[in-house]
Amino acid sequence: MTEETAKELLEQLKRGQIREIYVKKEDFPVFRQVLVQREDFGNFRGIAQKGGGVIFHYLPKT
User: Fold this and answer.
1) Where does the source fall among the domains of life (predicted)?
2) Domain of 24?
3) What is the 3-state secondary structure of the chain?
């Protein structure tokens, strides 16, 4: 996964165009680097999966 792909996926998730993002174990370092730079970092929830992958959802603040 490239940084550009990660940015694109995070924006789609935030806008509700997709429901979740599955990030493979090997893609996680690049994805995380992009994620933690976002102002809305706290709105993303990651759920670890067996095997090292992570599923991310966007939770808007109420």
Assistant:
1) Bacteria
2) 3-58
3) CCHHHHHHHHHHHHHCCCCCEEECHHHHHHHHHHHCCCCCHHHEEEEECCCCCEEEEECCCC
Task: Provide the number of structural domains found in the chain.
Answer: 1
CA-nearest of 41, 38, 43 to 58 is 43
Question: Rounded to two decimals, what is the model's pTM?
Answer: 0.92
Q: What are phi and psi of 34, to 5 degrees?
A: -70, -45
- C-beta of residue 43 within 8 angstroms of C-beta of residue 58: yes
- Residue 57 pLDDT: 98
- The whole-angstrom separation of Cα 24 and Cα 26 is 5
